[in-house]
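Dear colleague,

Following up on yesterday's call, I've attached the two folding results inline so they're easy to grep. Please treat them as preliminary; we haven't cross-checked anything against experimental data yet. The first protein's sequence and structure tokens come first.
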Amino acid sequence: MDKDIKSIEVRDLVKRFGDFTAVNDISFHVFKGEIFGFLGANGAGKTTAMRILCGLSHPTSGEGSVAGFSIVNEQEKIKKHIGYMSQKFSLYPDLKVWENIELFGGIYGLSDRQIAEKTESMLKTLDMEKAKNMYVSDIPLGWKQKLAFSIAMVHDPEIVFLDEPTGGVDPVTRRSFWELIYKAASTGVTVFVTTHYMDEAEFCGRVSIMVDGKIRALDTPEGLKRTFGEKDMDGVFHRLAREATRNAEICG
């Protein structure tokens, strides 16, 4: 992690839907190479905030930057410099493993030579060379997860956004997935991750917890546990989640 370089900066960010304020004046930053946990119960506003950071939604007010580009008027540039992976993995099940890699390589603007090189190296790194002609629908869930993460990184993005990427995956597979995250961060990639698994929050360098559209707490996992007098992040999260006064809403 490089504390001299901020990959993400957000200042006074607000997002309203009519009279409803989904994100209510939040400010924070994320360092280059940091693994940053962005937590909140359903309805807290974290999904809405993440969509703005990914260039998929415009803020109502406030400012900020992702990979050096404005969240207000440079959304398309942001999209070219980030990777994204969701719980559904964003893969095409009716395409073969190698076809998925080539497809996304093309979407991200890689040349044919780059795609060929990335496909070969990715299959080797994932130990999936023998599975390259299998349809994604037929490979194990853990393989899909690792493949989706690697595809999100195929264009060497500065930042990768992971939106609950380990949902429904067993603990052993989740642990091996986090090894990929650590490896990416060690090369300087910033990892911005949401999760409902509080043991995973322990793996983050810092953690933000949103409640009712605001950032209620932001610190290292150890710092949060000390502040709130809890033995683990599960205790911290549930203590803060009980403060929520609004129900889950369409914007997360």
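Below is the second protein, in the same order (sequence, then structure):
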Amino acid sequence: MANGMAIIGDLFEPRERARYQGLMGAVFGLASVAGPVLGGWLTDAASWRWIFYINLPIGVLALAVLAVAMPKPETGQQHRVDWWGAAALTAGLVPLLLALNWGGSQYEWASTTIMGLFAAAIAALSVFVYRELHASEPILDVRLFKDRGFSASMTVLFLSGVGMFAAIMFIPLFMQLVQDRTASSTGALLMP
């Protein structure tokens, strides 16, 4: 979604952006309702592999349209990518995700493996924050978090995203694996 918003920012003038972002939001809303129902029906009627037969050609078509419609970059100020910051962020997120995924299932939460992964994540993310504070063009300007409005909105956005995606991921699993429902009925349950 962030890339979609950035593309709208590149393609349209500021006075037109709200209209196109509204259209994109409407498409997202429609896809959130119709997608699980259609996906469940395809899974029950044909096979789960049909998601690739349908989505990959649409994705290739969308990339082709973007390749033609995206404005060419202006020759002006050259920007530098903070590769060390990106490496530190990756080095921090990978062990964090592994610890959260393995903790309580493959390893005890208090095991040395999980604690070591958390320690590695904290160390690498600390390096990331330090790097972003001193980079000329940071990936994420951590000074933005000093603004209470920005911090509050990011916290709400994070929590609502966690809630939405947890529901989208776990309700279908629960319905199909525990309650032995079909993919179609699971998709219909996600409509509300």
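For the second protein, one point worth flagging: The CA atoms of residues 145 and 154 lie 9 Å apart.

Best wishes,
A.L.
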